[in-house]
Amino acid sequence: MLELSEINVAYGRAQILRDLSLTVNAGEILCLLGRNGAGKTTTMKAIMGLLPLMSGRITLDGQTISELPAHKVAGTGIGYIPQGRRLFADLTVAQNLEIGLMVRNSGGAVRDGVLDLFPRLRERLHQRAETLSGGEQQMLATARALCLEPRVLLLDEPTEGLQPSMIEAIRQVIVVMRDRGVAILLVEQRIDAILSVADRVAFIENGRNLETLPADALRADHAILERHLGV
Protein backbone atom coordinates (compact mmCIF):
# COMPACT_ATOMS: atom_id res chain seq x y z
CA MET A 1 0.00 0.00 0.00
CA LEU A 2 1.22 3.47 -0.93
CA GLU A 3 0.18 6.17 1.52
CA LEU A 4 0.62 9.94 1.38
CA SER A 5 -0.07 11.59 4.73
CA GLU A 6 -0.72 15.35 4.75
CA ILE A 7 2.12 16.18 2.40
CA ASN A 8 3.05 19.76 1.58
CA VAL A 9 5.21 20.57 -1.46
CA ALA A 10 6.40 23.83 -3.01
CA TYR A 11 8.27 25.03 -6.07
CA GLY A 12 10.46 27.72 -4.56
CA ARG A 13 8.10 30.04 -2.72
CA ALA A 14 4.98 28.77 -4.48
CA GLN A 15 3.27 26.06 -2.44
CA ILE A 16 1.52 23.53 -4.69
CA LEU A 17 0.36 20.68 -2.42
CA ARG A 18 -1.39 21.46 0.85
CA ASP A 19 -1.93 18.68 3.40
CA LEU A 20 -2.65 16.21 0.59
CA SER A 21 -3.45 12.66 1.70
CA LEU A 22 -3.97 9.63 -0.55
CA THR A 23 -3.95 5.86 -0.17
CA VAL A 24 -3.45 3.45 -3.08
CA ASN A 25 -4.04 -0.18 -2.20
CA ALA A 26 -2.42 -3.21 -3.76
CA GLY A 27 -4.51 -4.45 -6.66
CA GLU A 28 -6.42 -1.23 -7.27
CA ILE A 29 -6.36 1.66 -9.72
CA LEU A 30 -6.78 5.08 -8.14
CA CYS A 31 -7.25 7.89 -10.65
CA LEU A 32 -6.16 11.37 -9.61
CA LEU A 33 -8.41 14.02 -11.15
CA GLY A 34 -8.27 17.79 -11.08
CA ARG A 35 -8.15 20.85 -13.29
CA ASN A 36 -4.89 21.98 -14.89
CA GLY A 37 -2.51 23.14 -12.19
CA ALA A 38 -4.29 21.25 -9.42
CA GLY A 39 -1.08 19.46 -8.41
CA LYS A 40 -1.41 16.05 -10.07
CA THR A 41 2.05 15.87 -11.65
CA THR A 42 3.57 17.46 -8.56
CA THR A 43 2.10 14.61 -6.53
CA MET A 44 3.80 12.07 -8.77
CA LYS A 45 7.15 13.87 -8.55
CA ALA A 46 6.88 14.10 -4.76
CA ILE A 47 6.29 10.34 -4.51
CA MET A 48 9.38 9.70 -6.63
CA GLY A 49 11.53 11.98 -4.48
CA LEU A 50 12.01 14.48 -7.31
CA LEU A 51 10.54 17.23 -5.14
CA PRO A 52 11.24 17.46 -1.39
CA LEU A 53 8.41 17.54 1.14
CA MET A 54 7.98 20.62 3.30
CA SER A 55 6.14 18.36 5.71
CA GLY A 56 4.14 15.15 5.77
CA ARG A 57 5.14 11.56 5.05
CA ILE A 58 5.02 9.04 2.21
CA THR A 59 5.17 5.33 3.00
CA LEU A 60 5.19 2.11 0.98
CA ASP A 61 3.94 -0.91 2.91
CA GLY A 62 4.74 0.92 6.12
CA GLN A 63 8.28 1.91 5.12
CA THR A 64 8.95 5.64 4.93
CA ILE A 65 10.23 6.49 1.46
CA SER A 66 9.89 10.29 1.59
CA GLU A 67 13.28 10.51 3.28
CA LEU A 68 15.05 8.57 0.53
CA PRO A 69 17.04 10.26 -2.24
CA ALA A 70 15.30 10.13 -5.61
CA HIS A 71 17.65 7.53 -7.11
CA LYS A 72 16.69 5.04 -4.38
CA VAL A 73 12.91 5.44 -4.56
CA ALA A 74 12.58 3.33 -7.73
CA GLY A 75 14.54 0.59 -5.99
CA THR A 76 11.77 0.26 -3.41
CA GLY A 77 9.45 -0.97 -6.17
CA ILE A 78 7.84 2.14 -7.62
CA GLY A 79 7.65 2.44 -11.40
CA TYR A 80 7.07 5.90 -12.89
CA ILE A 81 5.93 6.69 -16.42
CA PRO A 82 6.10 10.49 -16.62
CA GLN A 83 4.22 12.70 -19.01
CA GLY A 84 6.38 13.01 -22.11
CA ARG A 85 7.83 9.47 -21.62
CA ARG A 86 11.48 10.55 -21.03
CA LEU A 87 13.05 7.76 -23.04
CA PHE A 88 16.72 7.55 -23.98
CA ALA A 89 16.10 8.53 -27.59
CA ASP A 90 19.48 7.45 -29.00
CA LEU A 91 19.34 4.03 -27.37
CA THR A 92 17.57 1.00 -28.76
CA VAL A 93 14.43 -0.55 -27.35
CA ALA A 94 16.54 -3.31 -25.80
CA GLN A 95 18.93 -0.81 -24.19
CA ASN A 96 16.07 1.23 -22.72
CA LEU A 97 14.65 -1.94 -21.19
CA GLU A 98 18.06 -2.91 -19.85
CA ILE A 99 18.23 0.36 -17.91
CA GLY A 100 14.93 -0.55 -16.24
CA LEU A 101 16.21 -4.02 -15.42
CA MET A 102 19.39 -2.64 -13.84
CA VAL A 103 17.47 -0.66 -11.18
CA ARG A 104 16.52 -3.84 -9.31
CA ASN A 105 19.03 -6.24 -10.87
CA SER A 106 16.27 -8.05 -12.76
CA GLY A 107 17.14 -10.60 -15.43
CA GLY A 108 16.08 -11.93 -18.79
CA ALA A 109 13.01 -13.70 -17.45
CA VAL A 110 11.56 -10.37 -16.32
CA ARG A 111 12.33 -8.80 -19.69
CA ASP A 112 10.65 -11.69 -21.52
CA GLY A 113 7.56 -11.34 -19.34
CA VAL A 114 7.35 -7.64 -20.09
CA LEU A 115 7.78 -8.22 -23.82
CA ASP A 116 4.93 -10.75 -23.69
CA LEU A 117 2.73 -7.79 -22.72
CA PHE A 118 4.10 -5.70 -25.60
CA PRO A 119 4.76 -8.05 -28.55
CA ARG A 120 5.27 -5.09 -30.88
CA LEU A 121 8.36 -4.07 -28.91
CA ARG A 122 9.83 -7.56 -29.31
CA GLU A 123 9.85 -6.91 -33.07
CA ARG A 124 11.72 -3.62 -32.55
CA LEU A 125 14.38 -4.50 -29.98
CA HIS A 126 17.23 -3.16 -32.10
CA GLN A 127 15.39 -0.02 -33.22
CA ARG A 128 16.30 3.34 -31.65
CA ALA A 129 13.61 4.76 -29.39
CA GLU A 130 13.48 8.04 -31.32
CA THR A 131 12.36 6.18 -34.46
CA LEU A 132 9.29 4.62 -32.80
CA SER A 133 5.79 5.98 -33.23
CA GLY A 134 4.26 7.90 -30.34
CA GLY A 135 2.23 4.89 -29.27
CA GLU A 136 5.25 2.60 -29.42
CA GLN A 137 7.26 5.07 -27.35
CA GLN A 138 4.51 5.01 -24.71
CA MET A 139 4.63 1.23 -24.76
CA LEU A 140 8.40 1.35 -24.27
CA ALA A 141 8.15 3.82 -21.39
CA THR A 142 5.58 1.56 -19.72
CA ALA A 143 7.62 -1.59 -20.42
CA ARG A 144 10.76 0.00 -18.97
CA ALA A 145 8.87 0.79 -15.75
CA LEU A 146 7.53 -2.77 -15.58
CA CYS A 147 11.12 -4.09 -15.74
CA LEU A 148 11.40 -2.87 -12.14
CA GLU A 149 8.79 -5.49 -11.14
CA PRO A 150 6.93 -2.65 -9.43
CA ARG A 151 4.69 -2.91 -6.41
CA VAL A 152 3.37 0.54 -7.34
CA LEU A 153 2.97 2.04 -10.81
CA LEU A 154 2.57 5.79 -11.41
CA LEU A 155 1.26 6.84 -14.83
CA ASP A 156 0.99 10.49 -15.84
CA GLU A 157 -1.25 11.03 -18.89
CA PRO A 158 -0.35 7.70 -20.55
CA THR A 159 -2.89 8.03 -23.41
CA GLU A 160 -2.11 11.63 -24.39
CA GLY A 161 -1.93 11.98 -28.17
CA LEU A 162 -2.39 8.27 -28.89
CA GLN A 163 -4.67 6.65 -31.44
CA PRO A 164 -7.50 4.44 -30.13
CA SER A 165 -5.73 1.12 -30.77
CA MET A 166 -2.71 2.23 -28.73
CA ILE A 167 -4.93 3.57 -25.96
CA GLU A 168 -6.63 0.18 -25.72
CA ALA A 169 -3.27 -1.64 -25.63
CA ILE A 170 -2.06 0.54 -22.74
CA ARG A 171 -5.39 0.16 -20.95
CA GLN A 172 -5.21 -3.62 -21.14
CA VAL A 173 -1.71 -3.66 -19.64
CA ILE A 174 -2.80 -1.37 -16.79
CA VAL A 175 -5.66 -3.74 -15.98
CA VAL A 176 -3.34 -6.77 -16.12
CA MET A 177 -0.95 -5.15 -13.65
CA ARG A 178 -3.82 -4.26 -11.32
CA ASP A 179 -5.00 -7.86 -11.45
CA ARG A 180 -1.47 -8.97 -10.53
CA GLY A 181 -1.69 -6.97 -7.33
CA VAL A 182 0.13 -3.80 -8.35
CA ALA A 183 -1.09 -0.54 -6.79
CA ILE A 184 -1.67 1.94 -9.62
CA LEU A 185 -1.93 5.72 -9.40
CA LEU A 186 -3.16 7.13 -12.70
CA VAL A 187 -3.36 10.74 -13.85
CA GLU A 188 -5.58 10.91 -16.92
CA GLN A 189 -7.71 13.57 -18.59
CA ARG A 190 -9.76 11.24 -20.77
CA ILE A 191 -12.91 10.62 -18.78
CA ASP A 192 -13.83 7.56 -20.84
CA ALA A 193 -10.42 6.03 -20.12
CA ILE A 194 -10.81 6.70 -16.41
CA LEU A 195 -14.26 5.17 -16.21
CA SER A 196 -13.08 2.07 -18.07
CA VAL A 197 -10.33 1.17 -15.58
CA ALA A 198 -10.66 3.05 -12.27
CA ASP A 199 -11.59 1.45 -8.96
CA ARG A 200 -11.59 4.78 -7.10
CA VAL A 201 -11.20 8.43 -8.13
CA ALA A 202 -9.59 11.14 -5.99
CA PHE A 203 -10.37 14.76 -6.83
CA ILE A 204 -7.90 17.49 -5.92
CA GLU A 205 -8.05 21.26 -6.32
CA ASN A 206 -5.29 23.76 -5.59
CA GLY A 207 -3.24 20.93 -4.13
CA ARG A 208 -5.89 19.94 -1.60
CA ASN A 209 -8.11 16.89 -1.25
CA LEU A 210 -11.71 17.37 -2.32
CA GLU A 211 -13.18 13.88 -2.13
CA THR A 212 -12.41 10.29 -3.05
CA LEU A 213 -15.19 8.18 -4.51
CA PRO A 214 -15.72 4.70 -5.94
CA ALA A 215 -15.56 4.89 -9.73
CA ASP A 216 -19.02 3.33 -9.87
CA ALA A 217 -20.39 6.52 -8.33
CA LEU A 218 -19.06 8.52 -11.29
CA ARG A 219 -20.37 6.02 -13.78
CA ALA A 220 -23.82 6.37 -12.23
CA ASP A 221 -23.76 10.17 -11.82
CA HIS A 222 -21.77 12.27 -14.29
CA ALA A 223 -22.88 15.41 -12.43
CA ILE A 224 -20.01 14.69 -10.01
CA LEU A 225 -17.53 15.32 -12.81
CA GLU A 226 -19.29 18.53 -13.78
CA ARG A 227 -19.19 19.73 -10.17
CA HIS A 228 -15.46 19.15 -9.78
CA LEU A 229 -14.12 19.61 -13.30
CA GLY A 230 -16.73 21.56 -15.21
CA VAL A 231 -17.04 18.75 -17.81
From TrEMBL:
GO molecular function per UniProt: ATP binding; ATP hydrolysis activity; branched-chain amino acid transmembrane transporter activity
Domain annotation ABC transporter: ranges: 2-231
UniProtKB keywords: Amino-acid transport, ATP-binding, Nucleotide-binding, Transport
Family annotation (InterPro entries): AAA+_ATPase (IPR003593), ABC_transporter-like_ATP-bd (IPR003439), BCAA_Transport_ATP-bd_LivF (IPR052156), P-loop_NTPase (IPR027417)
GO biological process: L-amino acid transport
Superkingdom of this protein's organism: Bacteria
Family: Belongs to the ABC transporter superfamily.
Record-given protein name: ABC transporter ATP-binding protein
